[in-house]
């Protein structure tokens, strides 16, 4: 009988199983743009092999390449490394970005999906060559160029990522997706085409494509931070360089962030206290991503609002019925749009009290 190539176990069971594990795990990410002829065949091959190595996490496969955020038992790390490097010549020697802060509990299951693109960009330009990318900058060169008055640093991540941490003097576009970021950043930089444009993101994958896109759009001196924030932090610590990143690096797993510097630059979305802890609302019917301090977590029972706090106290059957008609912050706003507290601005969402 052929092995089932999907995970069918309940998330809560998987979470409980992982939390009871005694083995040490390593969280890492990698990506590569290269031509894949049969994405579905590669997806199935990956699932079989990664499942055998007890890998957990999220992997996207598309005709343009592969993008993975995973965790692996320490005892299987070398076997995973060998498997990836030998899977395709284009993957041989690629960087495996290891997490800065890691308790090994970053993922609870293995999910591998075939997608149209490994990074959704909204581009439909056949003349655009994503391999013609910007110059890679290691941490030391990034710091040098950051000091040049002719340099513009651009954060290619989403607003909820840059809210908790970003590079000094960086332009941080107010966007929810990479698809939104490309035209928004192009508009912001429209009169800066001859400047040194330096882009960065979490691990580098978004900037690979963004830097190529902006070169295609006529920008002359386009650079990208090699390995993203994760590799920058590692190089800074290893070489004793000045750290120009302030705050936390948002990550797309159960940790939701890893600290790069001691500064806390964000505020609780409910009371305004200095805080950079992202959480999801405990009301599953809402589940909005927001920043919440310990005091507000206690006050609102880990919910984004009094409405959600009261809702989760109701009997499950009543909750199911009300979900058909009730509106919550998470159903009326996009991901991370709970920006309820900003200095000089009011609280934006009506359910906050």
Overall description:
- It is a single chain.
- With 353 residues, the protein is α/β, with parallel strands linked by helices.
- The N and C termini lie far apart (55 Å).
- 39% of the residues are buried.
- The chain is globular and about 60 Å long.
- The chain has 3 domains: 104 residues, Alpha-Beta Plaits, CATH 3.30.70; 113 residues, Rhodanese-like domain (Oxidized Rhodanese, domain 1), CATH 3.40.250; 67 residues, no CATH class.
Order of helices and strands: HEHEEHEEEHEHEHEHEHEEEEHHHH
Largest sheet: 5 strands, mixed
By CATH reckoning, the class of the largest domain would read Alpha Beta
The total of beta strands comes to 14
Helix content: 25-40%
* CATH fold description of the largest domain: Oxidized Rhodanese, domain 1
> N-to-C terminal Cα separation, in Å?
55 Å
Query: What CATH architecture of the largest domain do you see?
Result: 3-Layer(aba) Sandwich
| Number of domains as seen in the coordinates | 3
Mean of residue pLDDT values: 88
Any descriptors?
five-stranded mixed beta sheet; 14 strands; alpha/beta; disordered C terminus; 353 residues; Alpha-Beta Plaits; 12 helices; four-stranded parallel beta sheet; 30% helix; Oxidized Rhodanese, domain 1; 3 domains
